[in-house]
Amino acid sequence: MGNIILSILTIMGSLGLFLFGMKLMSESLQKVAGRGIRDKLARMTSNPGRGIFTGFVVTSAVQSSSASIVMVLSFVNAGLLSLFEAVSVIMGANIGTTVTAWLVTILGFEVNFSMFLLPLIALTLPLLFSRKHHFQNWGYMLVGFAIMFLALDFLKDSIPEVSAESPLIREIGRLSHSGFLSTILFVGIGIVLTIILQSSSATMALTFVMVSKGWISFELAAAMVLGENIGTTFTAIIAGLVANAPAKRAALSHLLFNIFGVVWAVLLLNIMLIGVDKFTLVLENRSPFAEAAVIPVALSIFHTAFNVINTLIFVGLIRWIIGITEKLLPVKEDEKHIYRLEFINSSVLSTSELSVLQARKEISLYCKRVTRMFELVPNLLVRKDLNEYGKMLERIEKYKNITDNMVIEIESYLSRLSESDLSSHSSERINLMLRITDHINSIAEAIYRMTKLIDKKNQGNYWFTQGIRNKLNRFFETISRMLNELNKNLSREYENVELDAVLKMESDIDQMRQKYQRKNEKHVRKEKYYYESGVFYSKIIDIGEQIADLILKTNRAVAESRRQK
Do 236 and 254 contact (CB within 8 A), yes or no? Predict the structure, then answer.
């Protein structure tokens, strides 16, 4: 009994080490090539062919379809990729994940690679202790690669040789003689194992070891591989649960694409295996039906063939798949996501470097909501209907609550990111984004103070003359144009930031304030309107000038961020 428990724990430990090595290699590669990955995903998706190629390249690089697909979800969530573009990238990612299987097959089974792994780790020591983060990340990537294949060696050694007469083999043999039901059963086993291990590559490695030990046949191993393709969608589904509607649909598209593929592959499994057998005979001069040693190569061929054929079948049906997801996940008319963040969520991220992109999008949305809040303010000067006036105040109050919640969540998110392992460039960018967010929050606070001041004036029945209202409308219009310029600069990814127009408008605001204040003092002395009305008018102008100063300060912070790119 003790030996059985020890064997189980050894197998689990080997799998855990395999997953750790893959995670270390994947995250380090993403840090090394993070910006390149972003560029590929954002630019190389103009048509399905490019999208598939991009998904293949990125997944081959990071060695994890789950990592690359979650990355795709984060781009959809941020509005950088359309759903159509995302589905094509996901299709390419499915093909890219077959590269890991080939690495395991060639390096883990055909070559005695373990003798080179510890020397490889030794050679990476100078990189690990380098002061440059870029070299450190390369070192961690190589160490992760070495750990992954050391773990594979441990896994092969930890699974005991079992004779054909053993109870376990007899039980598996019994399960394998149920025809089509056996195929379905082992597809299910592949799904469950992949969900538990959170890696189709780890499940594939386990499948390779099981067939090499003679535990399961080639047919059942192929069924497990099909199940692994469905199981690998679980991570994306979990990530999509807390994302916005397009990202949810992207995750569902991934699931549907793999389910539809597995359905046709199960129905045509025997035909596919015959084709794989012939191809393997050409390559290895051996049949996977006759020799267990050649099954890993045959499974890699099967895995690649399935994903390539499945992509060729459905690449022309992307809009059909999207149509199904839209019917399954309809967006309600009243569900505008106004009460929560739309772009950033820690469960949708793959690396801290990529999450900076999400935060920038959320800050841009935050500023747009503050702008909408300000656009309601001029309407308070014309109080024709008490009911409409009350609704207007409620809307402003609602926007105030929304922006208050947003700034807390954004700043909390950025603070967590600042504690992550970031490049110096990203750390500087986060500090500037915190400043930008703080400035926008100050703008929102000033707008709300102005709102309460106007309401207090209205409640006291201190009326403004038509001349004062005209001046304030010109004043507000200039501030509104300044906010629109700020929104443009924030949406330009901090590139091509324009300051000239904002500087001119801020100067106009200063001149208007000085001119209006002088005339206000003069008119109050001549008693053209009540003293209290003049005080309210003066205070509103002062707050407006503060808002203009804050808008200029925010634009300058955006421009400073651009210079650090």
Answer: yes
